[in-house]
Write a structure and sequence with these properties.
Chain lengths: 107, 121
């Protein structure tokens, strides 16, 4: 199985901050990585797939980069609606696996 | 607009079978190029992929659950289902049904709202 490790597990930030979350794969997954956002009590929502392709309707302040084993999700200017937990997911091979999540909290 | 709706018992006794159904509207399972999946999330924890099914009935399962899991599809009803046998308290979770990306790209593209299943006597 491909293990996905996210860091940090919790991040405290203020509105307007630039925020970066890292996701590392235990082996190369090329660019087969997605990022999702989950708010408390809600289902996750897809933000980015193929490492850097923004899902339709997702604000442009979200961006993704990386390939191989190291990936980042960047929020260029954190907005109140962005306080949530973010998950990466690899889809290079079965079983599909997720990172442990990064909770973005209000500082 | 795509909608996925999970249905099934919210309480299951230990050693019994958990059964859930996902009803799809806004897309046709039989003509979609996507796989359809089940993902679960124990309270306060992360996400775990359970298994996926294609309209042809082809399936993939998480090896950690393979002996317990069956995912099936009913294209006539535009539904797919999850069956998890011999459940324990560790199977208590919110269960999501989901549509994966089109064309065989298996990122979770769209999620149902989720349903909490508690395993308890």
């Amino acid at each position: 199985d491909i293990q996905m490790t996210q860091s940090p597990s919790t991040l405290s930030a203020s509105v307007g901050d630039r925020v970066t979350i890292t996701c590392r794969a235990s082996q190369s997954i090329d660019s087969w990585l997605a990022w999702s956002q989950q708010k408390p009590g809600k289902a996750p929502k897809l933000l980015i797939y193929k490492a850097s392709t923004l899902e339709s309707g997702v604000p442009s302040r979200f961006s993704g980069s990386g390939s191989g084993t190291e990936f980042t999700l960047t929020i260029s200017s954190l907005q109140p609606d962005d306080f949530a937990t973010y998950y990466c997911q690899q889809y290079k091979s079965y079983p599909l696996t997720f990172g442990g999540g990064t909770k973005v909290e209000i500082k | 607009q795509l909608q996925l709706q999970e249905s099934g018992p919210g309480l299951v006794k230990p050693s019994e079978t958990l059964s859930l159904t996902c009803t799809v509207s806004g897309d046709s399972i039989s003509s979609s190029s996507s796989y359809w999946a089940w993902v679960r999330q124990p309270p306060g924890k992360g996400l775990e992929w359970i298994g996926s099914v294609y309209h042809s009935g082809g399936t993939y399962y998480n090896p950690s659950l393979k002996s317990q899991v069956t995912v099936s599809v009913d294209t006539s009803k535009n539904q797919f289902s999850l069956r998890l046998t011999s459940v324990t308290a560790a199977d208590t979770a919110v269960y999501y049904c989901a549509r994966l990306g089109r064309g065989g790209y298996n990122f979770v593209a769209y999620w149902g709202q989720g349903t909490l299943v508690t395993v308890s006597s």
